[in-house]
Write a structure and sequence with these properties.
Blueprint (H helix, E strand, L loop, with lengths): L6 E2 L11 E9 L3 E2 L14 E2 L4 E7 L7 E5 L7 E5 L3 E5 L13 H4 L12 H4 L8 E7 L1 H7 L7 H8 L2 E2 L4 E8 L19 H7 L11 H9 L8 H17 L1 H7 L5 E3 H12 L1 H4 L2 E19 L7 H6 L9 E9 L7
Parallel strand pairs: 13-14
Antiparallel strand pairs: 1-10, 2-5, 2-8, 3-4, 5-6, 6-7, 9-11, 9-13, 12-14
């Protein structure tokens, strides 16, 4: 696999829509992590909602089609915590918008369509493990993520990069997400094994998911939301996810990005190179996500259900053409920022 290019020096999610204040109650139906910040993946005190317990609702993450609620958890510090709405049932004030199924999001899950809520249990269907029909591999360009994503100051890896004690110059793992087409972007939060990793797994993952150098909150968040919906245990899941990132990093995808650190590349030429080396179908399964129409933040690759990490990029992405756009919020020239304060 490609060599890891993260350097740990000595001494050592996309902008959110506006939230809305509401009132009401939320009764948890299962134990769920309660995050001080979903964007940062932070949960001080490892707080969880308790099944059957009601909590006061203070906020929803966006008007109308909300996905998360901010509730007050007595005894927690801080007490206001964000939870997924699928963790229980909400009873909101009369003026609060009713929850609706998340709308299709081509920029995040490759253009898959999802159904509306219906009697019979879309929520249950979309939180039942091992029902996936594909995967999405999301990789960060860590300098662009830390520089342009709101509220990253609390992420220790971003702070270390800013100070110069951590240098990241390879693609990094955001997540390996099982997908179920009928659920759109809402397949997740299944009942699964608790998050726990061997020390050797943490050491393997850290250069490719640098939050692991400092804590495990982001890895735990990714496992609870996505990893629980597939059959591998946490060690095998993260090991396979890292192998996939290493493969992409050493492919023409990674090569075109890494050779332009501190500069830029042309989006059309980038995809023309992929088509030339891997074919139209493989190239169509890759998407670049930018900030400010210019700065590379994420690389997303649609994977088949039976993807392999042992047969090169073709074995990883499969032969079926991808769905959805190939860029999101990118202009014709895409800048690849270097690690550190830009």
């Amino acid at each position: 696999m490609g060599a890891c290019l993260i350097t740990l020096l000595p001494a050592l999610q996309l902008p959110a829509l506006a939230s809305e204040t509401v009132s009401g109650s939320f009764t948890a139906s299962k134990a769920c992590d309660a995050f001080a910040s979903f964007a940062k993946g932070t949960n001080p005190g490892a707080v969880q909602l308790q099944p059957g317990t009601s909590y006061q609702v203070r906020e929803i993450n966006r008007p109308g089609n909300y996905e998360r609620l901010r509730v007050e958890v007595p005894g927690a510090s801080p007490p206001l915590r964000w939870v997924d709405r699928d963790c229980g049932a909400a009873s909101l004030g009369a003026n609060a918008p009713a929850p609706a199924a998340p709308s299709p999001a081509p920029s995040s899950r490759g253009g898959q369509d999802g159904p509306q809520d219906s009697p019979g249990g879309k929520r249950e269907m979309c939180s039942t493990a091992n029902q996936q029909d594909s995967y999405l591999l999301a990789m960060s360009w860590q300098p662009g993520f830390c520089e342009h994503t709101p509220r990253t100051s609390g992420k220790p890896e971003c702070a270390a990069m800013d100070k110069g004690s951590l240098v990241v110059s390879n693609l990094t793992l955001h997540g390996l997400w099982p997908n179920k087409k009928a659920c759109g972007t809402s397949y997740g939060n299944c009942d699964g094994k608790p998050f726990a990793l061997k020390k050797e797994t943490v050491a393997l993952v850290a250069p490719w998911m640098p939050n692991f150098y400092y804590e495990n909150s982001f890895g735990k968040y990714e496992w609870n939301k996505h990893g629980t919906c597939q059959a591998l245990d946490p060690d095998a899941y993260f090991t396979k996810a890292v192998a996939a990132v290493q493969l992409v990093n050493s492919s023409a995808i990674g090569e075109q990005i890494l050779k332009n650190i501190g500069g830029s590349f042309n989006a059309d030429k980038f995809f023309a190179t992929l088509r030339s080396q891997y074919g139209e179908a493989a190239a169509s399964r890759v998407m670049l996500v930018c900030a400010g129409q210019s700065y590379l933040q994420e690389i997303r690759v649609q994977l088949p259900l039976d993807f392999s990490v042992d047969k090169g990029l073709a074995g990883l992405v499969g032969a079926t053409p991808g769905q959805g756009p190939q860029t999101s919020r990118c202009g014709s020239e895409i800048r690849v920022e270097a690690s550190g304060r830009n």
